Amino acid sequence: MRSRLPEALAIYVAAMGYPKGTEYHRAPMWSEHIARPGWRAVGAVRTDPHHPDRPAELVAIAYGYRGGPDQWWQQQVRHGMRATGWSGEQVDFVLGNYFELTELHVHPDAQGHRLGEQLLRRLLADRPERGVLLSTPEVDREDNRAWRLYRRTGFRDVVRHFTFAGDRRPFAVLGRGLPL
Q: Which residue, among 77, 81, 76, 68, has the nearest Cα to 35 in the 3D structure?
């Protein structure tokens, strides 16, 4: 992952439609995530059949790790769950043993071939955690490829229209039990 970090971040920027330069702000955080307990990453590459001597091009990336109470994301989700009526016992159960699906991105040129689902299944295969959680931007009528993937693979609402500290966009927190 470290050796392909620039490629992975370029996919992230393209898939999310972020402005060029965003990758420089994300690189330190992604590098820090690699050291977290339970970290795992998967990717998809495309080879050029006309130039087999060229290195394979990374076209999709997914990674995550075991969630923990000292992590910013879990603290934010805990607050959101409590604010929307989850009991302390329910919150502790959900956040007590989960894999955080931190990033899953397919370059726009490679979308439409179920790469996202293949990465999701490979990333979550044989995980020891009880469940998986993720956050994704809210989209009108859940009408984009990411939402269709998450619904197709059984993710359910945990918190909707949540605003993380430092980001004005509304997000959904979704989760499901493991194994997938």
A: 68
Enzyme catalytic residues: 150
Asked if residues 150 and 171 have their Cβ atoms less than 8 Å apart, the reply is no
Helices marked H in the chain — which ranges? 5-16, 22-33, 72-83, 88-95, 115-124, 145-152
123-155: per-residue pLDDT in tens?
999 999 999 999 999 999 999 999 999 999 999
Q: Give the separation between CA 27 and CA 100, rounded to whole angstroms.
A: 18
Q: Is the pTM of this model over 0.70?
A: yes
Q: 55: burial class by Cβ within 10 Å (0-12, 13-18, 19+)?
A: exposed
Give yes or no for a contact between 145 and 117, defined as CB atoms under 8 angstroms apart: no
